Each structure stands twice: as C-alpha cells, then as structure tokens.
Amino acid sequence: MNISKEGYILFIINPSSGKSSSKLMFHEFRSYLEEKGYSIKIAFTESLEHAQELARKAAVEYDCKLVVAAGGDGTVREIVQGLEGSDKPMMIVPAGTENLLANEMGYDEKGKTLIKAFEGDASRDLDLGKANGRCFTCVAGFGFDANVIDMVNERREGHINHLDYFWPIWRTFWAYKFPDITVSVDGEQIHSGPGILFVGNISRYAVGLEILQNADFGDGLLDVCIYKCESQIQLLKHSVFTLSKRHINASDVVYRQGKIVEIGGDPQVVSCQLDGDPGPDLPVKIRLIPQAVKVLVPPDAKPAGIRTRLVRALG
C-alpha cells in the first residue's frame, strides 16, 4: 500500500506500555520514516478511552494517511474501534505483554519487519467482535481465564509482565468451581453445563496456545471453543491436549464457527474478559463486524512463533 507523503502519519502511543525491544522497534521505524521524508505526529494516550478518541478523530482527518498503534492488545483494540468503518489504514508496534494480534499478523521484535510491512503491498481486512457493544480484536474468554484476568487487574499498577499472572493462575486453578454456562451460535444452542469458553478472531492465545486453531482474523467468522470441564483433573487434561494441538477433536470439546454467539450464566460466578481486560457481565451477545479496518502486515506474514513470544516476554 502506497502511503502518500502529502499529509502525516500519526503514532498513537500508550506511554505505560513498552519494553526495550519495542522501544528499539519504534525508534528504528520512526527514523526510517523521517529519512524518507514523511511527516510524523505523536499522540500519547491518557487512558484506553483516550486512545479510541484519538483514533476516531484521525479517522475523519484527511491529512492523516496512516495510524500506527504502539501499545498492547487493549490499546490496539481501542484504536481499531476508533477507526472502525473508515478507510484509514493502520499498523501495529507491539509494545504490550502478549501482543496477541501483532503475533498473529506476523510481526516480530525487529524494526525491519515494520519497515517491510510499510513498504510492501500486503494489507489485511481485520474483523471486529462486539460483546454487548464492547469491542475485541483477539479473544473473549468466559470462566477460568477471565477469573485470572479479574485477579490480575485487582492488583495491577501500571505495566504488567508474565510473572504477574503466576499467582492468579495458581490460586484460580485450585479455587475455581466450574460453574454452568449456556452457549448458542447463530441461534443454535451448542452447550449447557460446566465449561470454559473462548470466542475469538485469532488462532493463538497466551504463550502461543492454538486454542482457536481454525480462526482467521479476516474470514468473517467468529471461532468458538468450549472445554467441557468440571474438575481440576479435567482442566489439566484439556491443557495437555491443547499443547499438543489435539483438543478440537476431543469428545469433551465443542468447536464451532459463526457470526453471533450468545452466552448465559450467573454473572456472580462467571466472568468475561476481552483482549485481556475485564469484559461485560453475563448474559453476553457477541456479533461480528466484518472488515472493520485495514491493517498493513509484513509480506508473507505468519503467526509469530514461540521464540518471538519469549523475546517479547523477556524484553
């Protein structure tokens, strides 16, 4: 995609995100753009809502030719929501803890990958999920992982890292009671009973787990994976099968695709998370917004591997 120099490129940056590797990426990419004669503007976010507001203004600003989202999945989500429905393209500088969407799109820890994405002709339409009107670009989780997210956010002070998840995961594993949920896809009920649910737009979740193996962020479909689970032993079994990429064929796993997903359950015991942030209370209705925004991606992009994820975790 040819980005015109008759205007400017807007960087929307979450100042609380950013590790050494992401800062190096940003400076290398910025220097490249300046050497090529592009005009750059930088806006720092004050909150997730502010990121969305900045993107919404950029969406209708003729002179803004490209929006670069520098932050984690939460920041990227809000910027996508602000750009939704416009013809304004975007890029991602992965600067968060997991960077799920950037990983899925093939970005790594190198500044030259950003440059290749900018110079190349590869762009992808990105679908958007809306859960009770609240957006997500990656994964909505219900049950166990959402409880972990709740516990992490209760203690959160600024930027978080992978170690911040250790005790919440450990405590949730032993305390979780596996409450009932109901799940319907495009009007058909596919589950009622104890279970852990993931609804998403990307194939790989935290630390590269391929929970939603068939997901494609631009195929116009939501992928749904339900782990039928009522004990810690069964949860461990699901974990092993997921690590070995055999879970979607297991008899106690339900896997579907659709455009509307409805989830019911007791909101006092079943939590929801959207892209790693606390989500709405149950009941939740998720619908797909196809081709919400266009994203520049590296040529021949493939989801980032375990090595890249480890570099980001340690960076």
From TrEMBL:
Cofactor: Mg(2+)
GO cellular component, one term: plasma membrane
One biological process term in Gene Ontology: phospholipid biosynthetic process
InterPro entries: ATP-NAD_kinase_N (IPR017438), Diacylglycerol/lipid_kinase (IPR005218), Diacylglycerol_kinase_cat_dom (IPR001206), Lipid_Phosphate_FormReg (IPR050187), NAD/diacylglycerol_kinase_sf (IPR016064), YegS/DAGK_C (IPR045540)
PROSITE patterns: DAGK
Gene Ontology molecular function: ATP binding; ATP-dependent diacylglycerol kinase activity; metal ion binding
Coiled-coil annotated spans: none
Name of the top EC class for this enzyme: transferase
Sequence ranges assigned to domain DAGKc in this UniProt record: 4-135
Enzyme Commission (EC) number: 2.7.1.107
Record keywords, A-Z: ATP-binding, Kinase, Lipid biosynthesis, Lipid metabolism, Magnesium, Metal-binding, Nucleotide-binding, Phospholipid biosynthesis, Phospholipid metabolism, Transferase
Protein's name according to its UniProt entry: Diacylglycerol kinase
Naturally occurring in which organism (per UniProt): Anaerohalosphaera lusitana
Gene giving rise to this polypeptide: dagK
